[in-house]
Automatic annotation (TrEMBL):
Its cofactor is pyridoxal 5'-phosphate. This is 8-amino-7-oxononanoate synthase. GO terms for biological process: biotin biosynthetic process. It comes from Calycina marina. PANTHER family: 8-AMINO-7-OXONONANOATE SYNTHASE (PTHR13693:SF77), CLASS II AMINOTRANSFERASE/8-AMINO-7-OXONONANOATE SYNTHASE (PTHR13693). One of its GO terms (molecular function) is transferase activity. Belongs to the class-II pyridoxal-phosphate-dependent aminotransferase family. BioF subfamily. SUPFAM superfamilies: PLP-dependent transferases (SSF53383).
Length: 442
């Protein structure tokens, strides 16, 4: 992996002098990112001997083969299925099996209706773009996913305002100002869509949804302020049977839109795994107004079958077994690495743990982990704000206590080396793993 990563970061514009200017200009632009090792590149998949603290297979349904077996069983019940939907939902693609699965999804999550989108990203972006009206507003947590921002670029909403991450008081201030400055919101003739996430993928923290909902209801008793919540990182790992945060808090009747993704904890196929949970008016609005619904073919039978297989595992209690396993490993890791166990006061630990570093040090830690046969990716600006660099750790059901302890020890080993460099106790200005990697580049 490191060899491939280094190759992808070698400057290329210099060898493009005889090529067409169009392609040379692209390489020149990418060379800027290559120079500071910030270019996003496709990484080779590692084998199972490498300790996995980065994949989205939270419950190990994919690695264990359970989702594959459930998928094959589901396909065997429908031997004569048609592979393609052969049209969009407003054309020919609205087939019975797809409709049935949406009804099952709505029933599982206690929603009035469901709509299967082409991906979790598209479900989020497409919904944020299609649902708000031109005179309306989108209010969003300033840590929401890139897909929400893409949706806002396409939205006709007249107002787009952010509030401080997970801060009910900040939401109150933003909503109050909007209400006071625009009569239509106070009278209920204009609507507000509030965008949040259940579990934020960079920090692993949980949305204070109960408090946020109370703020919105207090300021807008007519109900024209409603929430859209991205449940991508709670699906399968929070709530009864791994349903989601909304189910755990009993807020099913208070949230207008929930977005789920089946390609993470459920291990289902990633291409068409977005689920939008809503009521019938919103579903009708999506079909009539969302460009992804109108101009794309409906999900194929195998894609829907893989989603059904994943939800069968949730219904059978398999998610709760996986949750117990990763919680044990996560708590062992925190106990091993933490001198002050503040985590013991947290009621719900999520599977995401960020290890914050100084800028560029996230690469050093990434190198150190990889050389020690551990995979956890470095994350830096612009994915996170400047000064918030980190290595993101993701815990899974397949990470045993021994792996959690190994991870903690390797991180501490790296931290000790960095402290020695900072104190001037060594002539080196770069840690050993980074020196080894850059020597490979040379």
């Amino acid at each position: 992996m490191l060899t491939k990563w280094l190759q992808d970061h070698k400057p290329r514009a210099a060898v493009m002098k005889e090529q067409r200017a169009f392609y040379r200009n692209l390489e020149l632009a990418m060379d800027i990112s290559r120079a500071d090792h910030s270019l996003f590149v496709a990484k080779p998949r590692w084998d199972d001997s490498v300790l996995d603290f980065t994949s989205s297979d939270f419950l190990s349904f994919s690695r264990s083969g359970r989702i594959r077996e459930a998928f094959q069983e589901e396909l065997s019940r429908h031997e004569n299925f048609r592979l393609s939907a052969s049209g969009s939902r407003v054309q020919y693609g609205n087939y019975d099996y797809l409709i049935q699965m949406e009804q099952e999804l709505a029933g599982f999550h206690g929603a009035e209706a469901a709509y299967i989108a082409h991906s979790g990203f598209m479900a989020n972006a497409g919904t944020v773009a299609a649902v708000p009206l031109p005179c309306g507003a989108i209010i969003y947590d300033d840590a929401v996913h890139a897909s929400t921002h893409e949706g806002m670029k396409l939205s006709l909403a007249s107002h787009q305002l952010s509030f401080r991450h997970n801060d009910p008081d900040s939401l109150r201030d933003v909503l109050s100002e909007l209400k006071e400055s625009h009569t239509a919101f106070a009278t209920g003739s204009s609507s507000i869509l509030i965008a949040v996430e259940s579990v934020y993928c960079m920090d692993g923290d949980i949305c204070p949804l109960d408090e946020l909902v109370q703020v919105a209801k207090e300021l807008f008793p007519l109900g024209n302020a409603q929430f859209i919540i991205d449940e991508a990182h709670s699906n399968g790992v929070i709530g009864p049977k791994g349903a989601d945060l909304v189910d755990m808090l009993g807020l099913e009747k208070e949230i207008a839109l929930l977005i789920h993704m089946c390609s993470k904890a459920l291990g289902s196929t990633g291409a068409q795994s977005g689920v939008i949970l809503c009521n019938k008016p919103i579903r009708d609005r999506l079909i009539s107004n969302a460009r992804f619904a109108i101009y794309s073919g409906a999900p194929s039978f195998p894609m829907v079958a893989s989603m059904r297989a994943g939800y069968r595992l949730l219904e059978n209690g398999e998610a709760e077994k996986g949750m117990v396993k990763f919680q044990k490993s996560l708590k062992h890791f925190l106990k091993t690495i933490t001198a002050h166990p503040d985590y013991e006061r947290i009621e719900h630990l999520t599977h995401i743990v960020p290890v914050l570093t100084r800028p560029k040090h996230e690469l050093y830690l990434f190198f150190h982990l990889m050389i020690n046969n551990i995979n956890a990716y470095a994350v830096s600006f612009p994915v996170v704000p400047k000064g918030k660099s980190r290595v993101g750790l993701v815990f899974h059901a397949h990470n045993g206590l021994d792996q959690a302890e190994t991870l903690a020890n390797v991180i501490c080993e790296w931290a000790q080396e960095m402290l020695e460099i900072k104190a001037g106790e060594t002539e080196n200005v770069m840690p050993s793993a980074a020196r080894q990697v850059y020597a490979m580049k040379a």
